[in-house]
């Protein structure tokens, strides 16, 4: 009995020891597992994420500040600076300096001080996320009044005012459609260019956009040690910015000023070319805008004005217009190159021509008798050119129009550019689902109907007559002028045909509709006026010309929308441009 009890006791003890051993093993395994996890996590944090965590730790006391690089200057063909940089102030926020909830309160204060919608501030912060260590710019071009207001209220945690470089257009609206403007890089820009810092400024229009990679340079940065409150303690290092390279343009400030002053903000355009090289000496479009407004925050009122019905952003130098009688230059050469007419051909003129029961009238409603090409251009005879057009057909006119540059002249990468067109019967049927009539041919021959030519193409057209039959290739950069691919293309004109056209255009100035240019104030020039009908409105006023006659240097194309006769609005603009080129004192503005 005792042995049985003893055996039971031993069994219970053995069982208890076994249970304790099992629990010890379990505890040991749990402890080992926890230590392994901690060890693994420690190793991961040190070895895998060590660099990242060290960066986060440093950011608690080190702040990286971007340094805006100076953009390269833009200079005209004579080296005169037309776009520069100036010192400005910008307001930056450091997102991680406050919590999301705190920024809601601070954004309201900043909004009231800087007149920026609170929603815009929050949007900027959310774009980079609130834990971002990189600053975000909320305002460029901080004026003195707002700067003083910020200074007087004391420090707002995470807000900093930085001095930096910004763009300046000292001539205001001058050549705005060509020069363009800058703005902050969009989210798409930042994704496409991960090297861009937040707030990167890039070209948004015109030369600023086309030459952005050359002009923008490379931004630098400063490393600043700060305390827990964000106060700067000392500078740790600087990566200096690299300025962008300057770009020389073919524009001539003096000619551009003359063109814009006389266009006077009216809807229209002026283009001036070097007749030998195609260099664009001036390109004015009205109405225009001041690119300086894009160097700071734009008010809603200003933006609404820029979106007005007059479309100030539209570069009218690259828009198609009915060319009117300026187009007779193309019809004349097409006729002489067709083999059906020669430089000495003569045709009778009439007060009107009856085509299918519709009367197409002469310029001036009276016959000029039997005349040749020279006199037909001098008096701008419509019936003379009607007969040419019906004889050679619209396809021949269209073909020669394209050779002269209509529809084929480069817009040079400028914004909103388009091309002219000279439709053929096939194109009309395809595009408008309408048949071609003889009346369409008649209208085409004098630059009316569906014919469209841009002011740039008009200048190219008249340059070809001025320089002896070589079609120039317009360009805006001085380094392009002598590149092999930019050399003028010979159109293989018959010398006699070219001479009679030059004589006719000279006669327009000596005795025709542009004789106001022959007042003795400038050397003798040549050209052709145009008056294009606009349904329900006053006619458009046009002029193309070149000068001087004995040694052509520049060619001009002018369009003034609803300006009336070519001699009324377009010719005076050309006159002032010529005066600027020849160094003649401009005509005083009438009181």
Q: Would you identify the regions where 5 or more consecutive residues have pLDDT less than 50?
A: none
Compute the number of helices: 20
N→C terminal distance: 141 Å
Radius of gyration: 37 Å
Main sheet makeup:
5 strands, mixed
**What percentage of residues falls in helices of 4 or more residues?**
25-40%
Tell me the overall shape: elongated
Number of strands: 21
The chain-level mean pLDDT equals: 88
The proportion of residues in beta strands is 15-25%
SS content category: alpha+beta
Write the layout of secondary structure elements.
Blueprint: H1 2-48, H2 50-59, E1 62-67, E2 74-75, E3 81-93, H3 100-114, H4 118-128, E4 136-140, H5 144-153, E5 159-168, H6 176-179, E6 182-184, H7 187-192, E7 201-203, H8 206-210, H9 212-215, E8 220-226, E9 232-239, E10 247-248, H10 253-263, E11 268-274, E12 280-286, H11 300-306, H12 328-337, E13 346-348, E14 352-355, E15 358-361, E16 370-372, H13 373-379, H14 382-392, H15 394-403, H16 425-432, H17 438-445, H18 455-466, E17 470-471, E18 489-490, H19 495-511, E19 526-534, E20 537-547, E21 554-560, H20 566-582
Parallel strand pairs: 2-10
Antiparallel strand pairs: 1-8, 2-3, 3-4, 3-5, 6-7, 8-9, 11-12, 11-21, 13-16, 14-15, 17-18, 19-20, 20-21
Structural summary, described in words:
With 591 residues, the protein is an alpha+beta fold. The protein contains 20 helices and 21 strands. The strands form seven sheets. Strands 2, 3, 4, 5 and 10 form a five-stranded mixed sheet that branches. Helix 3 (100-114) packs across helix 4, helix 10 (253-263) packs antiparallel against helix 20 (566-582) and helix 14 crosses helix 17. The longest helix has 47 residues, at 2-48. The radius of gyration is 37 Å and the shape is elongated.
